[in-house]
Amino acid sequence: MVDVTVEKAEPVIDRLVVVGLGLIGGSFAKGLRESGLCREVVGVDLDPQSRKLAVELGVVDRCEDDLAKACVGADVIQLAVPILAMEKLLAKLAQLELGQAVLTDVGSAKGNVVRAAREAFGSRLPNFVPGHPIAGSEQSGVEASNAELFRRHKVILTPLAETDPAALARVDSLWRALGADVEHMQVERHDEVLAATSHLPHLLAFGLVDSLAKRNENLDIFRYAAGGFRDFTRIAGSDPVMWHDIFLANREAVLRTLDTFRSDLDALRDAVDAGDGHQLLGVFTRARVAREHFSKILARRAYVDAMNSNDLIFLANPGGRLSGRIRVPGDKSISHRSIMLGSLAEGTTEVEGFLEGEDALATLQAFRDMGVVIEGPHHGRVTIHGVGLNGLKPPPGPIYLGNSGTSMRLLSGLLAAQSFDTVLTGDASLSKRPMNRVANPLREMGAVIETAAEGRPPMTIRGGHPLKALNYTLPMASAQVKSCLLLAGLYAEGKTTVTEPAPTRDHTERMLRGFGYPVTVEGATASLESGHKLTATSIEVPADISSAAFFLVAASIAEGSELLLEHVGINPTRTGVIDILRLMGGDITLENQREVGGEPVADLRVRGAKLKGIEIPEALVPLAIDEFPVLFVAAACAEGRTVLRGAEELRVKESDRIQVMADGLLTLGVKCEPTPDGIIIEGGPIGGGEVHGHGDHRIAMAFSVASLRASAPIRIHDCANVATSFPNFLALCAEVGIRVAEEGKS
Ligand code: S3P
C-alpha cells in the first residue's frame, strides 16, 4: 500500500506491527485500530499477560511472541520498547527480511536510537523514521492504552538525511490521524530541546525530593511542604526505571544543559550570598515574563485548536449614544520612550500610567533582553533600574518587536551605537514596513545595518562601529525617524541636528530634557551632543489622545452624546484631531488644563454635533497622523465632501490605511475615492456588512465606531491587534454605550 492520505477511514496500510505494548505502544495501536486505517494491527510483547490483555481490550487484532513471525508482511513497524532495549531490538530486526516496511520508534531520546540503528542496519536507513510523541500519563501498561492519548500533543519526527520522503509522509500521516501535531526536527536539536525542557526538570525534581527526604528532619519538612514543593516536584512521581533509561540514553545533551544550569544556579547562590537584590530581581522578573509568555503560547494554541483560525472578529451593532467619563490607556509614544530613556538613565525611574499594550510591552521586553531590570507593569506602574548609556548587554537572540514600528525605528538608532550585534524582527505587518528611512541616515553616521529586500525587516545591526554626528533634513515628517537619529546622536561624536519638514510629535525632545539631557530646539531643528548623561526621574504618562480620538469621533457622530475623557495628553504636536473635528463643527472643550511631567494634559468634553465635510488643512496632517482612520468615519457621517491631501504616509502604517479604509467604507455603502496621497469622502448613510481590520488596530477600532451611525451590524475581521495599543477598548466601549463586542460574547 502506498496511499498516505488519511481523511477517509479506509485502510491505507495492510499491516501495522507494534513492538512493545506499554502505554505508548498500546495507545498508538489502539488509536490506529479504531481509526480503521490499518487492515490489521499486530502486537508483539515479551509479557504473556500484556499480550492477552491487548487482544481482550481491543488494542490489537492479534499478538505474537515471536518478532520474526509478527513482522511478516508488515507495512509499518512501530518500536515502542523502553529506550535502552532499542539497541537489541534493532539488532534483531536487522536479521529479518523486512521488505519495504517502514520502521519508526517512540524513544524519548533520538541520538542513541539513530546510532543503534546505524550499527544494526549500516549507514543507509531510507525506511527509518525516528519519532518521539510528547505525551504520557502517570498510568502505565497496556491496560492504560488510550486511543486519545496523542490528541493535541506534539509528536516530533527526526528524519535522517537519507530518509525516504514517502516513509516520512506515511509515519507523519499516522500520527496526524491520531490527532497529534507533528513537527519535524534534526536529531541533535531534538535531544537538546528535550534535555532542557523535560529531562533537566525531571532530574531537578527527583534530586530535590531525594535531597530533602535524606535529611533527618524530613518528616517535619514534608508536613509543611505545600504549594511550591508540591508544584515543583510533581514529576518526581514518574517511573524511575524509564527515567534512568532516558538519562543514560541522552547523556551528552543532558550534561550540556545541566552544566549551563549549574553555572546559572551558582550565580544565584552568589547573589543570595552577596545580598545582591538587583541580580535576584533581574532573574525573577525575566523568569516571570518568560513563564507568562509560555502560558500565552499554550493558551493561544488552545484557541487556535478550538476555532481553527486566529481571526478575532468584532461584531458592532448599530446605533447608540455615549455618556459618562472614562480614562483611556496611557500614551503609546510616551510609554515607549519612558522605557528607552529610563533604561539608559543612571538611577531608578518610576513610571505611572504606562500603556500595557503589546507594542509598549515589546519595547519593555527588548530592554529586559538587554539586561535591564524592569519591575512591573502592574496597574500602569513600572520601575526601571537604569543601566546608564553604556550599560546594555547583548540580548540572547533576535529581538522580536511584534507589530511595533515605533520600537523598531527608535531602537535601531540606539542599537547602532552599541558594542554588540542585534537583530530586530517583527510580525507580518511590521515585516512589510520601510526601514531605510532610518537605516540610510544611520549608515551616514557610520552605522552598519543590513535589512531584507527593499529595506524591510529584519534589521541586523552590527555593533562596534563608532558613530559620527549628522546634520540631517528629514525627507518626510516622521517623529520616529527624528527620534531614532536623536537617540543615535546620544552616542555620536559631535552635534547631531535633525530638521523636519513639518512639526511632528516632540515627546523624545521633551523627555530627554526631563532626564536632564540638554536638547536645543530652534524652529524645525532639534539638536543634541553626546557626552552628557541621563538621570533617572519620575514619569506620569497621560492618556493617549490617539486612543481618545475614537471616543471623540464616536460622541461627535452619535446624536445626544456627552462624554468626558479624563487626563488626555494634549501636546500641541498631537492635537490635530481636535482641530479637524472642530473645523468640521465638532463640539469639544478642554477642561482643567495642566502640565504633568513636561507634557500638557486636559479633560476633554465632547458632545454630539452635526458635522460637515471640509478640506483638511495639510498642515494638520502630521499632527493627526494616527487618527485618520477614525476621522474618515467622521467624514462619512458629515454633511458634504471631505478631502484629505498630503497624507501619503498613511499608506505605510500598520496597513495601507487609505486603501484599507476606502475598501471598508465602500463595503458599508459610503461613497469615497482613494487618491495617491489621501482620500475624498462624501458624507451619507452608512450600511452594515463585513469589513477587514487587516491586523491594524486603528482600522478595527474605527469601524467599531462607525456602527453608531450604521443601519445594520458591522462584522470586523482580524481585530486581535487592537491589543497593541488599546487592550481594554471593548470594555470602555461597553461602558460608554458603543455596542461592539467580540463575536460570540455580548
Ligand atoms: C510615532 C510616530 C508616528 C506615529 C506612530 C508613533 C512615534 O510615526 O504614526 O504611531 O511614537 O514617534 P511616523 O514617525 O512614522 O509618522
Automatic annotation (TrEMBL):
GO cellular component: cytoplasm
Subcellular location: Cytoplasm
A UniProt-annotated Pfam family: EPSP_synthase
Catalytic activity line of the entry: 3-phosphoshikimate + phosphoenolpyruvate = 5-O-(1-carboxyvinyl)-3-phosphoshikimate + phosphate; prephenate + NAD(+) = 3-(4-hydroxyphenyl)pyruvate + CO2 + NADH
Entry keyword set: Amino-acid biosynthesis, Aromatic amino acid biosynthesis, Cytoplasm, NAD, Oxidoreductase, Transferase, Tyrosine biosynthesis
HAMAP family per UniProt: EPSP_synth
UniProt similarity note: Belongs to the EPSP synthase family. Belongs to the prephenate/arogenate dehydrogenase family.
All residue ranges annotated as the Prephenate/arogenate dehydrogenase domain in the record: 14-302
SUPFAM superfamilies, sorted: 6-phosphogluconate dehydrogenase C-terminal domain-like (SSF48179), EPT/RTPC-like (SSF55205), NAD(P)-binding Rossmann-fold domains (SSF51735)
Name of protein: 3-phosphoshikimate 1-carboxyvinyltransferase
Pathway connected to this protein: Metabolic intermediate biosynthesis; chorismate biosynthesis; chorismate from D-erythrose 4-phosphate and phosphoenolpyruvate: step 6/7; Amino-acid biosynthesis; L-tyrosine biosynthesis; (4-hydroxyphenyl)pyruvate from prephenate (NAD(+) route): step 1/1
Native source species: Pseudomonas laurentiana
GO biological processes: chorismate biosynthetic process; tyrosine biosynthetic process
